[in-house]
C-alpha cells in the first residue's frame, strides 16, 4: 500500500509543480508581476491566480512532509488543477494561445530595439496619415471630398476616413452621427438614409463621401491608400472597396484582425481595444507579421520605454496629438489634421 501512496504523492507533486509554473507564467505575461502594468492589471483574474498559487504551494509543502491524508490532498490537487484552465482559457485566450503560444512560441527579442523609430522624422512616405481626410478651410473631422483633395495636394498619400453605416446599411464617411447632424442641420431622429446623407453638404460647403465617391476618388489617385477608422468589419471593406491592397484597417478586436489577414487586408490593431487586453501583445504581432499598430499619444508618452521596445516588431502610429509639431526620433508615424507639412515637420 505504501508503494502506491508514494507513487501517488510523486504524481501529485508533479501536477502541483506544473500548476504553479503555469500560473506564474500567466501572471508574468498578464502583467501580474511588478512591471509598468502591475497596478492596472491587479484585477480579479490575477488575484485568483495568486490565490491558486498560494493554495497549491501549501498542498505541495504538506505532501512532502506527511504520508497522511493523501486522498484529501488528491481532492485539493484536482480542484486547483481544474481551476487553472478556467482561469486561462476564455475565448480571447484561446485565440491568443492558438496563434501565438502554440503555433509561434517566440521569445521577446530586443536586439533590434527601435527598428521602426526614425532617427530623424522625415514626414515622407507612409509616416503621415491625414486624420478624417485632414483639415480643410480651417475645419477638421469633415471626412469630405475636399479634405482628401487638399491633403493629396499637400503631398499626403495615406488618407484616413471614418466609415459607418447609414440607416439603410450603406457605408459612408462620417466621424459621428451627432456631430454630422449638427454640421448639416439634419433634424430627424436616428441615422439618415444614404439618399438623405448625400443630400446635405457638410458645413454647407463640403461634399459627403459614400462608397461610390470613395472608390471613384481612390481609382483616380492610384498612389493613395485608404486608412479606415470606426468600422470593424474587414468583410464589408473587402466587398465594397476597389482594391484590398490599398487599404489598411484600424481594427478593434482580435477576431477582426485575424479576419482581415485571412482576406488579404492589412490590419492596424488598436492598442486600447485589442493589444492592451492581450496576454502576449508583442508575440501576437510577431506571429501574425502585423506591421502597423495604432497607439494613443498619451499612452505612448507614459510608457515610452515599452513602446520603443515594441517598435522592433511593428510600426507605431500615434493619434491624439493632431496639432502639435512632429517630435523627431520617438515613433514611426502619426495622424495629423494640418496636412501642410511645413507647419508640423521640424
Describe the structure.
This protein is α/β, with parallel strands linked by helices. It has 2 domains: 2-88; 128-343, TIM Barrel (Alpha-Beta Barrel), CATH 3.20.20. 45% of the residues lie in helices and 12% in strands. It has 14 helices and 9 strands. Strands 1, 2, 3, 4, 5, 6, 7, 8 and 9 form a 9-stranded mixed β-sheet that branches. β4, α10 and β5 form a beta-alpha-beta unit. α1 (2-29) runs antiparallel to α3. It is elongated. Mean pLDDT is 79; it is low at 31-42 and 85-113.
List keywords for this structure.
single chain; 346 residues; alpha/beta; TIM Barrel; 2 domains; nine-stranded mixed beta sheet; 14 helices; 9 strands
Order of helices and strands: HHHHHEHEEHHHEHEHEHEHHEE
Class from helix and strand fractions: alpha/beta
CATH topology of the largest domain: TIM Barrel
Q: Outline the biggest β-sheet.
A: 9 strands, mixed
Mean of residue pLDDT? 79
Number of DSSP E strands: 9
**Contiguous helical run count:** 14
The overall number of domains is 2
Percent range for helical residues?
Answer: 40-55%
Radius of gyration: 26 Å
Gap between N and C termini, in Å?
80 Å
CATH class of the largest domain: Alpha Beta
List the helices and strands and how they pair.
Elements: H1 2-29, H2 38-41, H3 44-65, H4 70-88, H5 91-102, E1 128-130, H6 145-153, E2 158-165, E3 171-173, H7 177-184, H8 194-198, H9 211-220, E4 225-229, H10 234-240, E5 247-251, H11 254-263, E6 266-269, H12 281-287, E7 292-296, H13 297-302, H14 304-310, E8 315-319, E9 333-336
Parallel strand pairs: 1-2, 1-9, 2-4, 4-5, 5-6, 7-8, 8-9
Antiparallel strand pairs: 2-3
Helix pairs in contact: 1-3, 1-4, 3-4, 5-12
